[in-house]
Amino acid sequence: DEQLDLDDGHWEDIHVVTGALKLFLRELPEPLVPFSHFDKFIAAIKIQDLSLRGHCIRDLVLSLPPAHHDTMKVLFRHLCRVVEHKEENRMSVQSVAIVFGPTLLRPASEEGNMAMHMVFQNQVVEHILNHYGIIF
């Protein structure tokens, strides 16, 4: 309900804008990748056969509820554009995945090995970024 003036000078700092986006995504009642899909994405990224992994992740993205799928498509299109400018912004695919992985894809409960989850969360985001054109 807060009214924001995006012309205010403090929005010019990209870290403020990125932080606001991450906070918004983190505070959603359910992450962009729904809790019901978390284990499926983690299992898919662990598949050794790269072709099978790619098909599985693409099918999982396509199986997302329309609002999640459509939001993911727009967000990842933007993140791909960020990566295109990695020489200037130092945001490689791996960097973007580290920043957004745990925000976009998280388990319903924080039980279990969070460090291992984080590795796989980042790998899922990295895979989607690297294969955006095929997935969407």
Describe this structure in words.
GO terms for molecular function: GTPase activator activity. Pfam families: RhoGAP. Keywords: GTPase activation. This is RHG27 protein. One of its GO terms (cellular component) is cytoplasm. The protein is mainly alpha-helical. It has one domain (14-134): Rho GTPase activation protein (Phosphatidylinositol 3-kinase, Chain A, Orthogonal Bundle), CATH 1.10.555.10. It is 68% helix and 0% strand. It contains eight helices and no strands. It has helices spanning 14-26, 35-45, 50-62, 66-84, 86-89, 93-104, 114-130, 132-135. Helix 2 (35-45) runs antiparallel to helix 3. The mean pLDDT is 92.
Give the overall form: globular
Stretches with pLDDT under 50, minimum 5 residues: none
N-end to C-end Cα span = 32 Å
Largest sheet, in brief, is: none
Quick description:
With about 140 residues, the chain is an all-alpha fold.
Structure characteristics:
136 residues; mainly alpha; Phosphatidylinositol 3-kinase, Chain A; 8 helices; 68% helix; RhoGAP_dom; Rho_GTPase_activation_prot; Rho-GAP; GTPase activator activity
Which SSEs are present, and which pair or pack?
Elements: H1 14-26, H2 35-45, H3 50-62, H4 66-84, H5 86-89, H6 93-104, H7 114-130, H8 132-135
